[in-house]
Amino acid sequence: MRAPAPAYVANDGVIEAASAALGGRLLHSLDAVGEVALHVDRASLVETMVALRDTPGLEYQQLMEIAGVDYPDRGIDRFEVVYCLLSLTRNHRIRVHVQTDDEKPVPSVTGIWPVAGWLEREVYDMYGVLFSGNADLRRILTDYGFRGHPQRKDFPLSGYVELRYSEEAKRVVYEPVQLAQDFRTFDFMSPWEGAEYVLPGDEKAKLPEEKGAPTPLKADEIVKADANVSAKAAPSDPKTTESTAQSGAGKPGPGAGEKPADPDVVPSPKGQNQ
């Protein structure tokens, strides 16, 4: 039984069809890990998108996402703007890449897909990439007074300023960033699994604790509070009987040849004359 969802179209012939439709506007292409990426000329981006949307055999009608990428080591055109397109009729996706910097604007595709207005604002806010033709290119994720673009690789981790609501001024105020503690270096060693260093405060763990108190020491290192009290000596011989002489059993009682004592007669003391 086949799945109800339509199968994805293979990448076979997509690059050839795009090359024929775009001509010199296609700088280079790549088919890797099951995805097709087309790197196109920035100045002719709008014509490229119209061709990808209207050419039979391509028909990428929908813009799904616009993303930014920063490559600061390039030196020139460090930013890439990536357009993710979907063909609804063919159930196929491609990526379109253009390169730019923080001065050369990228042509806006809001005339083709109005949803690009919000997506271009996100790329501008996070990377500082300009889009010519966007009628409302403002910040959308950060505050209006935010300095810098936070997803650039050279943006400091702590930022430049922080904002809070001031009860005294009754408004939002900007202040220099103040970290509550310095950045720490983690060694991924758990103190409960035998770290090779002593955490602050653990030096007290080596002292004897009160009886019944929990202790972080191992079982063979525990020193109880009453360990210095000497234990009572255990009996050397067990309390057992091996003969009737030890228990008193078998002694002769009143019997033959022996007159029982008269309870009314009081015996005279030894050594006295009767």
Topology overview:
Blueprint: H1 14-22, E1 26-32, E2 35-40, H2 45-54, E3 62-70, E4 79-87, E5 92-100, E6 106-107, H3 116-127, E7 131-132, E8 161-166, E9 171-176, H4 244-247
Parallel strand pairs: 2-5, 6-7
Antiparallel strand pairs: 1-2, 3-4, 4-5, 8-9
Describe the model.
There is one protein chain. With 274 residues, the chain is an alpha/beta fold. It contains four helices and nine strands; from the N terminus they run H-E-E-H-E-E-E-E-H-E-E-E-H. It has helices spanning 14-22, 45-54, 116-127, 244-247; strands spanning 26-32, 35-40, 62-70, 79-87, 92-100, 106-107, 131-132, 161-166, 171-176. The longest helix has 12 residues, at 116-127.
Please give the radius of gyration in angstroms. 46 Å
* pLDDT < 50 stretches: none
Which series of helices and strands comes N to C? HEEHEEEEHEEEH
Number of strand segments: 9
- Our count of helices gives 4
* Spatial separation of the terminal alpha carbons: 128 Å
* Main sheet properties: 5 strands, mixed
Q: Order the strands across the largest sheet as they lie in space.
A: 1-2-5-4-3
Structural class: alpha/beta
* Helix percent band: 10-25%
- Silhouette: elongated
Q: pLDDT average, as an integer?
A: 80
Q: Name the beta content range.
A: 15-25%
